[in-house]
Amino acid sequence: MKIQIPRGTVDIMPGESEKWQYVEHVAQEIFKRARYSEIRTPIFEHTELFQKGVGDTTDIVTKEMYTFNDRKERSMTLRPEGTASVARAYVEHKLFGQVNQPAKLFYCGPMFRYERPQKGRQRQFVQIGAEAIGVQDPAVDAEMMALALSIYQELGLKEIKLVINSLGDKTSRLAHREALIAHFKPSIHEFCSDCQTRLEKNPLRILDCKVDHAHPLIATAPSIIDFLTDESLDYYTQVKRHLDVIEVPYVEDATMVRGLDYYNHTTFEIMSESKGFGAITTLCGGGRYNGLVEELGGPASPGVGFAMSIERLLAALAAEEITLPIANHLDVFVVGVGEAVSPITLKLTLAARKAGFTAERDYLSKKVKGQFKTADRENARFVVVVGEEELAEGLIVIKDMTTGTQEKIAMSDYIATLQKKQHEGETN
Ligand code: HAM
């Protein structure tokens, strides 16, 4: 029997992987300019980290984690997201003790969620994310949203929108919670069994139930905005003021609750508005999580961040018909005349690569004509021909494939000639 790839995973094949590299590189450059440094945390963590961090009433923790016991019967989980791990590392490495706060960290790597696979939803996906931990300042929230947006914008996406909300502080959340319970309690029997448990445990989760999302009581549920304390409302207003001044357009959506428990105050999502995009339109999600670090045993350290999957980012680029400017040119193809020159063609190929050119040769013992055909197909800029007779005199031929001109040169001038010709080509 043929063994197939697990459901909800993909092989990123040549032709596709270049796009991933390109996107990752653009994001890294953006983070670098914003003075964010990369953090690489393990792919698996103690299960408890996500139970405590992401929240044990969330779908992610109750239904979607890849959890297993290791050989010493310790419960481990493939990370479903990156924020809990980054907060753990912030505590573990005492980053709170550093003079410069917030700690500005970014990451890029695979996450795992046992979800029903569909377009834009996989069981293994790659998130690019950023976290700023140690400061509560509306400027950091606004900057975080601008940072996420800039990744999409620098790649050329236009049909995107930023949606924001505030989930307030503890007091706001408690008042909202009571109102939600009062709202849903009389009709809770009409909801799924999960929602019935959610009612007392975490009624906010009813609002993003995948089963009952169309129930009329969801649309009429009390809005968090009406329960924000003066302080929370003021913080939210400040965040919006920053967005206005930096000219980042946004829409507000008081029903946006996000699927993770650690959020308070600012939450946001970036959605694709492209017509060609599938049913799942959220490209990026993020927000503030002021209690998370404390929950994981560190000192109270407010944080804010976002994560986006590369899968959805590439789908958005495809929907807007944007092609990435991926360079895949071949500078030099070395043609050998006769098998005896094989070591020399290899030597010249390697020398060109060492000098910074992309270089290739034939490995199928093709005739000269066939080798030229390959060079043509690969769009080689220069073809270098090595023949036994010329070689005896220390000579090789360089053919410029754009002009069709060729010249015989001393093998010792090989790299210098390539460099000169390349330079002439660039300045022409
Ligand atoms: P999230 O909303 O669960 O938030 O996921 C963020 C993004 O990850 C989504 O907007 C989407 O692009 C991508 N994503 C999630 N699940 C899948 C999937 N099954 N297949 C493909 N892409 C997916 C978080 O993970 C938070 N840690 C974000 C955050 C960082 N909040 C603060 N800091």
Automatic annotation (TrEMBL):
InterPro entries: aa-tRNA-synth_II, aa-tRNA-synth_II/BPL/LPL, Anticodon-bd, Anticodon-bd_dom_sf, His-tRNA-ligase, HisRS-like_core, HisRS/HisZ, HisRS_anticodon. CDD domains: HisRS-like_core, HisRS_anticodon. Its EC number is 6.1.1.21. Its main location: cytoplasm. It catalyses: tRNA(His) + L-histidine + ATP = L-histidyl-tRNA(His) + AMP + diphosphate + H(+). It is found in: Cytoplasm. GO terms for cellular component: cytoplasm. One of its GO terms (biological process) is histidyl-tRNA aminoacylation. L-histidine binds at residues 81-83, 113, 127, 131, 258, 262-263. Residues 1-325 form the Aminoacyl-transfer RNA synthetases class-II family profile domain. GO terms for molecular function: ATP binding; catalytic activity, acting on a protein; histidine-tRNA ligase activity; transferase activity. Keywords: Aminoacyl-tRNA synthetase, ATP-binding, Cytoplasm, Ligase, Nucleotide-binding, Protein biosynthesis. Belongs to the class-II aminoacyl-tRNA synthetase family. PANTHER family: HISTIDINE--TRNA LIGASE, MITOCHONDRIAL-RELATED, HISTIDYL-TRNA SYNTHETASE. Homodimer. This is Histidine--tRNA ligase. The lineage of its organism: Bacteria, Bacillati, Bacillota, Bacilli, Bacillales.
